[in-house]
């Protein structure tokens, strides 16, 4: 199983402040399948994504990445999994502020050992597809929210990871750019046989995806499958 979880539970806080966000989720994501995750604000979508993305350890339950359960993995092993197996688009872009756009992208390619020629070709291709060529030498702080989001999408797919997790990747974009981003994410999943799990509040994205998941009251439901 390239990505999945078994009886995943997550609680934040302790004592009277304790809040159970995920109430035992079991789901499997086959390679090449694209899923859309919806649910009310505060329902746990980002929490689920960050656990699947090895950024947060769950309170209990098991996460599978590339056929291995990861609960015993060390911090260094989790970092290696994140660098090589996962592309993550954060809800708030989270580019490195002290590097310019091109350097942010180069770092991802260098981490997985892409040759300089391949790396530069991919950066140029993504900058053209997502229309941020003119921003390559600028620091993220000088970009608009939508430009930052497009760069964040490029960063997530640049190393062609087998798992792509995108948290509201179109939230800061107009519909034209939103569609470009979604097409690119779906194309990546299809070409690389990667898992794509995308969080959104926008029902217009539904036709682009194979599968629709909904979080409600801490539980995961499958609402349709084509
Ligand atoms: N680090 C944290 N510490 C404590 N509580 C948290 C933390 N992160 C999230 N929560 C709580 O967990 C619940 C789920 O949050 P989460 O960010 O996963 O929701 P979401 O579905 O992504 O919402 P949105 O659509 O607004 O992005 C919320 O009640 C939130 O307050
Ligand atoms: Mg969220």
3D structure, described in words:
With 226 residues, the chain is of the alpha/beta class. It has one domain: Rossmann fold (3-Layer(aba) Sandwich), CATH 3.40.50. Helices cover 33% and strands 27% of the residues. It is built from six helices and ten strands. The strands form two sheets. It has a six-stranded mixed β-sheet with strand order 6-7-8-3-9-10, sandwiched between helices. Strands 2-1-4-5 form a four-stranded antiparallel β-sheet, covered by helices on one side. Helix 6 (175-192) links the parallel strand 7 and strand 8. Helix 3 packs across helix 4 (116-129). The radius of gyration is 17 Å and the shape is globular. The two termini are 21 Å apart. The model has no long low-confidence stretch (mean pLDDT 96). The chain binds adenosine-5'-triphosphate (ATP) and magnesium ion. The site of adenosine-5'-triphosphate has 13 residues, from strand 2 and helix 1.
